[in-house]
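Hi R.,

As promised on Friday, here is the backbone we talked about, encoded as structure tokens. Could you run it through your design pipeline when you get a chance and send me back a sequence?
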């Protein structure tokens, strides 16, 4: 792996969308510690908002306070385990929050090494040389059916089952995240997003919007605006991280 230092910048925008007055998405950024997190909550009453906010706050606390010599993947797994226990325990103590949970997608960077954590159907993409690649795999029923060849990707877009998540943080006593490792190259652009973006915009349009030579906050705002124009049926959150 090359030893050249990589510097990171980040920005994020979150929006309720056009159909909701509340926002169950949450995000956290620590450029200093190389931690970028995004969650999309679910649950009755205020459960979704509570779960997503608990998740980003607890994950950020644990990952930014980890021992410097702790292996990154191990620290990520331990943080997920502790955060899952905290959310699940709170839901068991409060009947109004029973069953709450959240997706989690995270990017952890150490110089030119990047770990991507994923639970649920929030996604991480990487734009490299103007080509967009999805780095995570959705934990959803329709995505599993597509991978099994039982339905087509087009049918999945319109399936009444597309809201069914097969893995979430906080809904059960234990959960296993996907963890992927990548080598970062200068000019890589990472996008963390909730499904309020990806259900409204095809990857081709996301790729085109991200290819503009604009500040990160403007790129985030354009993505959110495009998703709202396309329908805005859910909360929309975009978090961008650029390597330089």
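Update: got your reply. Pasting your designed sequence below so it's all in one thread:
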């Amino acid at each position: 792996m090359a030893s050249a230092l990589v510097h990171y910048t980040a920005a994020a925008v979150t929006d309720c969308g056009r159909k909701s007055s509340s926002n169950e998405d949450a995000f956290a950024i620590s450029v200093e510690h190389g931690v970028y997190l995004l969650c999309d909550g679910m649950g009755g009453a205020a459960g979704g908002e509570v779960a997503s906010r608990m998740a980003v706050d607890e994950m950020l606390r644990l990952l930014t306070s980890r021992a410097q010599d702790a292996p990154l993947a191990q620290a990520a797994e331990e943080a997920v385990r502790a955060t899952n226990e905290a959310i699940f325990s709170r839901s068991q103590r409060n009947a109004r929050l029973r069953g709450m949970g959240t997706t989690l997608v995270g990017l952890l960077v150490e110089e030119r090494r990047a770990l991507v954590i994923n639970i649920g159907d929030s996604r991480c993409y990487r734009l490299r040389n103007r080509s967009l690649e999805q780095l995570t795999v959705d934990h959803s029923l329709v995505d599993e059916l597509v991978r099994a060849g039982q339905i087509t990707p087009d049918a999945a877009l319109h399936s009444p089952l597309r809201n069914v998540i097969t893995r979430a943080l906080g809904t059960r006593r234990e959960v296993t995240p996907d963890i992927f490792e990548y080598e970062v190259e200068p000019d890589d652009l990472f996008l963390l997003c909730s499904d309020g973006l990806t259900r409204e915009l095809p990857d081709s349009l996301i790729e085109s919007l991200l290819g503009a030579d604009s500040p990160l906050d403007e790129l985030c705002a354009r993505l959110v605006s495009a998703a709202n124009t396309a329908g805005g049926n859910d909360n929309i959150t975009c978090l961008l991280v650029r390597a330089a």
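One thing I noticed while checking it: The chain has seven helices and eleven strands.

Thanks again,
M.
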